Amino acid sequence: MAQNKTQPTDLDPDAVIASLAEPRRADAQTLNALMRRLAGAEPIMWGATMFGYGSYEYSYASGHGGRFFRTGFAVRAREFVVYVMAGFSDMEADLASLGPHKTGKSCLYLKRLDGIDLKVLERIIAKSLSVMAERYPQ
């Protein structure tokens, strides 16, 4: 079975956040606190820039499987990526009131948090975690 390219590392999440310049550091601290609280888990770095909270095991009919985080975020050069692992099904109203963003299949792209409604972001992450708990019970 092939192994995922992205794996947990021994990097210290707090040190990674501390290395960021403002205002990205403050945004990363906000995301970190929010996800710690919602996931009930401490972050683990997956690669150099991905903060993962909680984990789940998955397997496909093809035999491919692995472990990945239940939710998380990444600090990219121009934006933050919030991983909404359950996807965005039934989240249209929340996305419409979130603030400036873009989406991918399970990625929510945010340039900054200053224009984002954090209560809406919290609902989106909580909904995703709830779906993930149903799909992948711990």
Quickly list its features.
138 residues, alpha+beta, Aspartate Aminotransferase, domain 1, six-stranded antiparallel sheet, two-stranded antiparallel ribbon, 4 helices, 8 strands, 34% helix, 23% strand, globular
Task: Write up what this structure looks like.
It is a single chain. The protein has 138 residues and is α+β, with helices and mostly antiparallel strands. It contains four helices and eight strands; from the N terminus they run ααββββββαββα. It has one domain: Aspartate Aminotransferase, domain 1, CATH 3.90.1150.200. The chain is globular.
Sheet with the most strands, sense and barrel status: 6 strands, antiparallel
Terminal-residue CA separation:
23 Å
- Count of DSSP-assigned helices: 4
Morphology:
globular
What fraction strand?
15-25%
CA gyration radius, whole angstroms: 15 Å
Structural class: alpha+beta
Percent range for helical residues?
25-40%
Q: In CATH terms, what is the architecture?
A: Alpha-Beta Complex
| Low-confidence runs | none
Secondary-structure map:
Elements: H1 13-18, H2 24-39, E1 43-46, E2 50-53, E3 56-59, E4 65-68, E5 71-75, E6 80-84, H3 92-98, E7 102-103, E8 107-110, H4 118-135
Antiparallel strand pairs: 1-2, 2-5, 3-4, 5-6, 6-8, 7-8
Helix pairs in contact: 2-4, 3-4
Give a summary of the structure in a few sentences:
The chain is an alpha+beta fold and 138 residues long.
